[in-house]
Design goal:
binds NADP nicotinamide-adenine-dinucleotide phosphate; 165 residues; alpha/beta; 10 strands; 4 helices; Dihydrofolate Reductase, subunit A
Length: 165
C-alpha cells in the first residue's frame, strides 16, 4: 500500500505562498513547526524550494528534488524529473513523505487522488506574491486538528486536514 502523503504549506488567505523565490513573511513559530514536522523525513520538493531552503540537508532530511538538473544529485540528494518519479523514489526510502512545494508540485499532488494529510498554516492576511497554493477547499477534508496563534505581524491557524478519496 502506498504511503500517506503529507503536504506542508503555509498559505495566505489569497493562497499566496511565495514572492521572489522566498517566503513572503517571516513567522518564526511556523518555521519551527515546518522544521520539526520534516526533520528525519523524506522531503519532495521543486528545485527552487531546494535551493532556497538553508536547512534542507540538516536534521536528517532526505530530499528528493524534482528538476531537469541531474547535477543536483549527491550522496544526500536524489533527483527526479517528474513528481511521479520522485514519489517512486520516496516510496523506496524509509520514513514519511512530506511534499514541500512549490506551486506545480502541490497542484500535481492534489490531483493524484491519493489519501493525504495537509499540514496547513493559514495566514489570516492577503499578501502580495507570485506563487500560489492551489485551491484546496473544494475537497472534503476532515479536520484532525486546529490551533490558532499569532505574532506581532500576523494571525494564523495551524490546521491538520486529511482527505481520503
Ligand atoms: N509558504 C510555503 O509553504 C511555501 C512552500 C514551498 C514554496 N514556497 C515558495 O514558493 C516559491 C518556490 O516555488 P516555485 O513553485 O516557484 O518553484 P519550485 O517548484 O520549488 O521549483 C520550480 C522548478 O522545480 C522543477 N519542477 C517543479 N515542479 C515540477 C514538475 N512537476 N515536473 C518537473 N519539474 C518540476 C523545475 O526545475 P528545473 O527548472 O530545474 O527543471 C522548476 O523550474 C518560493 O517563493 C518559496 O518560498 C512557499
Amino acid at each position: 500500500m502506498p504511503k500517506l502523503l503529507h503536504l506542508q504549506v503555509a498559505c495566505a488567505e489569497n493562497r499566496v505562498i511565495g514572492r521572489d523565490g522566498r517566503l513572503p513573511w517571516r513567522i518564526p513559530e511556523d518555521l519551527k513547526f515546518f522544521h520539526d514536522q520534516t526533520a528525519g523525513q523524506i522531503v519532495v520538493l521543486g528545485r527552487v524550494c531546494f535551493e532556497t531552503w538553508p536547512r534542507v540537508l540538516q536534521d536528517g532530511r532526505r530530499p528528493v528534488v524534482v528538476s531537469r538538473n541531474a547535477a543536483l544529485a549527491s550522496d544526500q540528494v536524489r533527483v527526479a524529473t517528474s513528481l511521479s518519479e520522485a514519489l517512486a523514489i520516496a516510496e523506496s526510502l524509509p520514513g514519511e513523505i512530506h511534499i514541500c512545494g512549490g506551486q506545480r508540485i502541490y497542484a500535481e499532488t492534489l490531483a493524484l487522488g491519493r489519501p493525504m494529510r495537509l499540514h496547513l498554516t493559514l495566514v489570516h492576511a492577503d499578501v502580495p506574491g507570485d506563487t500560489f497554493f492551489p485551491e484546496w477547499r473544494h475537497l472534503a477534508w476532515r479536520e484532525l486538528d486546529r490551533r490558532d496563534s499569532a505574532d506581532a505581524n500576523y494571525r494564523y491557524t495551524f490546521y491538520t486536514l486529511e482527505w481520503v478519496p
